[in-house]
Amino acid sequence: MPEIDLIPIKDVPDILRISRMTLHRWIKEGKISVVRLSGRKIFVRREELERFVKESEK
């Protein structure tokens, strides 16, 4: 099985250099999808961030 690289949601704003509010708005708008492992454990797949950045560069 391939390794799944999950990034805690609290680290994503620093990686993308955006505010937490912007991240939560993009999630709500469906621009970035998340993985919820439980109520408080929310992650973003590394490949999802890479996809989002590539689309944003266009």
Cα Rg: 11 Å
Number of domains: 1
What is the helix tally? 3
Strand order in space, largest sheet: 1-3-2
Task: Please summarize the sheet with the most strands.
Answer: 3 strands, antiparallel
Q: Class by helix and strand content?
A: alpha+beta
| Annotation, overall tally of beta strands | 3
Residue share in β-strands = 15-25%
| Percent helix range | 40-55%
Question: Which spans have pLDDT < 50 for at least 5 consecutive residues?
Answer: none
Based on the structure, what is the oligomeric state of the protein chains? single chain
Name the overall outline: globular
Q: Tell me, rounded to a whole number, the average pLDDT.
A: 92
Between the first and last Cα atoms, what is the distance in angstroms?
A: 32 Å
Order of helices and strands: EHHEEH
Would you spell out the secondary-structure blueprint of this structure?
Blueprint: E1 6-8, H1 12-16, H2 20-29, E2 35-36, E3 42-45, H3 46-57
Antiparallel strand pairs: 1-3, 2-3
